[in-house]
Design brief:
By secondary structure, the protein is an alpha/beta fold. The longest helix has 26 residues, at about 190-215.
Length: about 800
């Protein structure tokens, strides 16, 4: 009799025995939970481990049917009888209900049911489940393969024969599936803390299952990350001593600004309130004081007090555009502390993760002569996407869509956020509509799952009550320091047309450099076109918007930075993309009226490093007519707070506090909280926003287009399409493995030429889009592109990027 298997042999990897797979997932999950310092109130930790064990050993139970074994061994076509999630979930429910109450049994049912897809709502339609198939599958297992399962389940005190013989599918349908709406109603009767705890426990157990299921299926046995949380060091002070010895002209403590920077770090390090007893912290400090270094000092101090000095550090930012510069600073500190240990296995200690980053673990296998295979790429991707590194630099999207998540690909890393130190930098960028959701959710994550949070910004929003959060630095201490009082803000609320402003600017501006920030791409481009002829002789002029591809945008920002450093004459017209973290500094800044936190962030690009002296930065706030892109409420709040005509940087803290005191946006949060109370992941109700609709960045109907405006980009696209065709071709003689690796490399190169556009912005270009239908290489990568020739002729301008109106009239096309 053939043994039962869960996964077939492939690429010289032997087949996986089903009971070995179930046991491996159970062991990995048990180890993770046992190592986590958690304090659940709805269930004891011992019972949670037992619940997780039952979910693990039953999650692929349905693979023991003869239909599935024939399908997996002989590469048969899948059918209704080869599906295994539903039968596994139902059998698991009946095993769990013998030891737990119905809510935990139903949780196990839902987790196993969805472990190959995304989490779904607890309320279900019983007609969606074909129990006749399940009945035949159970009878098949009892008749043909029960003997091979009996001893395995007895190890876990489960008589699988009795369980299957006493399983009543009709009772399950009538009392469980058909009554699911009543069941979720009882969940909503819990208080809000219990509702969030139940939600997070569900996602935690789902995370453990899907992550370890995937890794064991991939036969990943790797010690690369073992012990990395204990080894990691973030000693900033020893690194700064090294910097001072090597570059005294820049890091000397005698330089006035460095005195404050050093004191700032010392204040954090000596703060006695940084202890494991406190879970929420904030740093509110001016731009340029060294908040990035301050975050590392905080992390090092808190981590040193935790059991075994063990915690993952997760550092999240709002935009991918500012991750690189922060990552580079972290790498300098960590590599200095760990030296050769870091360079041997860098991703063991530090990793950046967002949609633009290659999914590579450096030196994971330690085989220098080993050629990288496509399986190596897939295995690396599993590790990257589950956040195994001791420090992860990522985006708000990745973090918050995992915490308040439903998707398999996000939730598989949820268990690695447990017990971590989470730093949210530029936290003011989080939509205030979600403040109440975050407050309630983070409270439970702190109290139950021992996660620590640090909120960092120059304009601190009021997400948490003062009694809940420790202010590591008293904001006034550095906000009021003359060295950081760098900007004089002039407020002009009188509406002015773009044409008048462009004329006035052209007649009056003669400074060394200037930044003008507009609310929309269209206005920024119109202003650029209005003034470029007047200034192009004496100034380098740039227009920065997301109509430029990332390739051009990054190249221009680097050029601007060099020009500013060399004191050359520069004018930059931009949108909000320069607001947070972009390391540029201008003498003169104009900004169109917007939300106050956005205004203050732009002020951080004015005299950023104090190079023009105290109050040497000139910031003019203007009010362009018909430039609205923000909600009327946000603009109204800004108008009401900015009552004077002039302010200084030292006033920004009070202005920010007054501004955020206006916010009472709770409706959107309440609707999501209502969904969490009823474990509603994907059903639309009048008083709920399902978890699946939570979006850090609102959904739009934008379409991804690749603009091949360089010859190199077009060559890469041609190569990508050739590889795609070779992979699909039956006559392909080149190894598929090699082609797939090359395909992944090309995808990440070409991302730098991708922009997102609304359909109406593409309307005039539909006939020159290639291909006419979007190409699908896999479910994560569908696209259209515009050729290099058409970019040059019609679509792309190297100064302003994508052209909504073609450079010249497009030729007529015969449509067949």
């Amino acid at each position: 009799m053939l043994k039962l298997i869960s996964h077939p042999s492939e690429n010289n990897i032997p087949e996986k025995k089903l009971t070995d797979h179930l046991e491996n997932v159970a062991k990995l999950s048990k180890k993770a939970i046992s190592e986590h310092n958690i304090s659940p109130t709805l269930i004891s930790k011992d019972n949670l481990q037992r619940l997780d064990l039952l979910i693990s050993i039953f999650h692929d139970f349905g693979k023991s049917t003869t239909w599935f074994q024939d399908y997996i061994r002989n590469n048969r076509q899948s059918n209704l009888y080869t599906s295994h999630s539903l039968v596994s979930a139902i059998v698991a429910y009946h095993a769990i209900i013998k030891e737990f109450d119905d809510r935990w049994a139903y949780m196990g049912f839902q987790i196993i049911l969805k472990h190959h897809s995304n989490l779904g709502s607890y309320e279900v339609e019983s007609d969606n489940f074909n129990l006749a198939i399940v009945k035949k599958q159970i009878e098949d297992i009892k008749k043909n393969n029960l003997s091979m399962l009996t001893n395995f389940f007895l190890k876990y005190n489960i008589n699988i024969g009795n369980l299957l013989n006493n399983l009543n599918l009709n009772n399950f349908k009538v009392n469980i599936l058909e009554e699911s709406d009543d069941f979720v109603t009882t969940l909503s009767e819990h208080n809000i803390e219990n509702a969030f705890e139940f939600f997070f426990i569900n996602n935690y157990l789902f995370s453990l299952l899907v992550d370890f299921d995937k890794k064991d299926a991939a036969r990943l046995k790797n010690s690369y990350f073992d012990g990395n949380l204990i080894e990691s060091e973030y000693n900033v002070f020893s690194y700064l001593t090294k910097c001072y010895n090597e570059y005294p002209e820049k890091f000397s403590p005698d330089i006035p600004i460095n005195k404050f920077r050093n004191q700032f770090l010392k204040d954090i390090d000596e703060n006695k309130d940084i202890t494991p007893n406190n879970h929420f912290y904030s740093i509110t400090a001016p731009t340029g004081i060294g908040k990035t270094f301050g975050c590392m000092v905080f992390a090092n101090k808190l981590k040193s007090q935790l059991p075994e000095k063990k915690a993952r550090l997760i550092y999240a930012l709002p935009y991918t555009s500012i991750i690189e510069q922060n990552f580079n600073e972290f790498e300098k500190i960590i590599s200095f502390n760990l030296n050769d240990k870091y360079f041997k296995r860098p991703t063991r200690y530090l990793m950046k993760h967002h949609y633009l980053t290659p999914k590579i673990i450096v030196n994971r296998n330690d085989h220098k002569d080993k050629k990288r295979t496509y399986k190596d790429y897939l295995d690396d991707r599993l590790f990257v996407e589950s956040w195994e590194s001791s420090m992860v630099v990522t985006t708000f999207v990745q973090l918050l869509h995992t915490i308040f998540g439903f998707q398999n690909k996000f939730l598989k890393k949820f268990h690695n956020i447990i017990n971590s130190l989470v730093i949210l930098d530029e936290v003011q960028n989080i939509d205030p509509n979600y403040h109440k959701l975050i407050q309630n959710g983070f409270n439970v994550l702190a109290d139950v799952f021992n996660i620590y949070f640090l909120l960092v910004t120059a304009t601190q929003p009021k997400i948490f009550p003062k009694e809940r959060i420790v202010e590591i630095i008293k904001p006034n201490k550095y906000m009021k320091v003359p060295t950081f009082n760098r900007v004089k803000l002039s407020v002009n609320k009188t509406p002015i047309s773009l044409e008048v402003f462009a004329n006035e600017f052209s007649e009056n501006f003669s400074g060394v450099n200037c930044l003008i920030v507009m609310n929309t791409k269209g206005i920024a481009i119109d202003f650029y076109n209005s003034i470029k002829e007047r200034f192009k002789k004496d100034y380098k002029i740039f227009c920065l918007t997301t109509f430029l591809t990332p390739y051009d945008r990054n190249r221009k920002i680097s050029e601007i930075r060099k020009l500013l450093k060399n004191n050359e004459k520069v004018i930059v017209i931009s949108t909000q993309l320069v607001e947070a973290g972009v390391d540029l500094s201008f003498k003169k800044v104009y900004r169109d009226f917007g939300p106050l936190d956005s205004i203050i962030q732009v002020a951080g690009r004015c005299n950023r490093n104090g190079e023009f002296g105290d109050l040497g930065g000139d910031f003019q706030l203007i009010n362009l007519s018909n430039s609205g892109v923000y909600s009327k409420n946000l603009i109204q709040y800004s108008q009401e707070v900015l009552i004077n005509k002039e302010y200084e940087s030292s006033n920004f803290l009070n202005l920010s506090e007054n501004y955020f005191s206006f916010f009472q946006f709770e409706l959107k949060s309440n609707w999501i909280i209502n969904a969490i109370k009823e474990m509603n992941y994907d059903i639309e109700y009048n008083d709920q926003i399902p978890v699946s609709k939570f979006k850090v960045i609102p959904d739009t109907s934008k379409r991804n287009i690749y603009l091949l405006h360089t010859k190199e980009a077009e060559q890469k696209m041609k190569k990508l399409l050739q590889i795609r065709n070779k992979i699909k071709s039956k006559d392909n003689k080149v190894g598929k493995d090699k082609l797939l690796i090359e395909l992944e490399k090309l995808k990440f190169i070409l991302i730098n030429f991708k922009i997102s556009l609304y359909p109406n912005q593409l309307k005039k270009y539909e006939y020159i889009l290639e291909p006419k239908e979007e190409i699908s290489l896999n479910k994560d990568f569908c696209f259209s592109f515009i050729s290099n020739e058409n970019c040059k002729k019609y679509v792309y301008n190297n100064e302003i990027g994508f052209l909504i109106n073609p450079r010249k009239e497009l030729p007529d096309f015969l449509i067949i």
